# Entry
Amino acid sequence: MSFNVPPFHAPDPEPAARSVRRPRTKRRRNRLIALGLLVLLVVLGAFAFFGVGRWLVVEDPLAPADAIVALSGQLPERATEAARIYDLGDAKQVWITQQPTPAAELAKLGVHFVGEDFYDEEVMIVLGVPVDTMRVLDPPAANTEAEVDEISGDMRAEGLTSVIIVTSKPHTRRVRAIWNRRAGPSLRAIVRYPDSDPYDAAHWWRHTRDALDVVRELLGLLNAWAGFPLRAR
# Structure
């Protein structure tokens, strides 16, 4: 009697090894992809952090306009720059916006309050701007949106088409964005800032004032891009 015993073959270890190797290779590749994305996000975040200070600053070339507008705030730099532009002959009148003040409340207590617009005028007079060319816009504006609405409304009422708006360096991009959204295409704004503005765009995080400016301007831009859901009281 004979038996046909099939030859013994040792199991091939390669399929098992390949099945273990593939998941490990896939996990390693996924980790590398995730690490690469993380590094990319960190690099982009660093560029955004260090570059946002400069990004906020924009300026238009000077050109003749119907009026110069010095937005309220940052005394005396804005008033000084408005007077300098007036001296160049690019416009024949200067407007000054004003902020809400506690003048009425203080008057009840017998205290006389002089607003910042008064000192803006004084600065311009000292620098040679004639009194009869200056005008303080009324009513007071609580924020930049209200200032833009007031300026553009007065321009339409007087048949004007262009203004030079003087503001601070980090505020320039937001002023332009708000103007483009609220003033309409028929009215042109040339946005300028004073060279004497102390804002350090390259190192804004080093100074409390500059850091607060950057945060405020970014929030203001987000509000403008979203259609102004947040409004001043």
